[in-house]
Design a protein that fits this description.
The protein is α+β, with helices and mostly antiparallel strands. The chain is 14% helix and 29% strand.
Length: 156
């Protein structure tokens, strides 16, 4: 897995690196445990604290999935409408060493993704999902299926 770094000045500076890609976001300090386990593991039992919310009614969480951001439709009207409800850099503070790791899913694994539209098909209205932005991967995601770790923090 390739590892690179990016310093941003504003939250939107991240967008060129994410456009057209599918990725998982975690605080950088979680990476040692992720690398030790060799995988991203679904948080079905709410055992890991997520900066993106720990609601028990997360649509993909309840289906034993790892949630990913899906920016393949970046820039479309629907993406614009929902993207800022849950934005990758939303919890980074403007202090040194507060960083996130963005893990990019290999394109060959896109066919394993469960689209957010499954939420509509199941009429799972009491579950939470971010339309046009969130997707799920059922079960464990091996780090061999991740092409890159992009470590992102503010330039301060």
């Amino acid at each position: 897995m390739k590892v690179s770094q990016l310093k941003i000045i504003s939250h939107n500076d991240i967008l060129p690196a994410l456009s057209g890609r599918v990725f998982h976001v975690t605080p950088e300090n979680n990476m040692s445990l992720i690398k030790q386990s060799g995988a991203l593991v679904p948080n079905s039992a709410l055992l890991q604290i997520s900066k993106f919310g720990n609601s028990s009614n997360g649509f993909f969480r309840r289906r034993n999935c790892v949630s990913f951001f899906d920016y393949r439709c970046y820039g479309t009207k629907h993406w614009e409408e929902h993207a800022y409800k849950c934005f990758p850099t939303q919890f980074i503070k403007r202090v040194p060493n507060d960083r996130i790791s963005i893990l990019f899913l290999h394109e060959s694994k896109f066919d394993k993704l469960i689209p957010w539209t499954t939420w509509k098909e199941e009429e799972a209205w009491s579950d939470r999902v971010v339309p046009y932005v969130e997707t799920g991967y059922k079960g464990i995601v091996s780090l061999s299926e991740i092409t890159e770790e992009l470590i992102v923090g503010f330039d301060c």
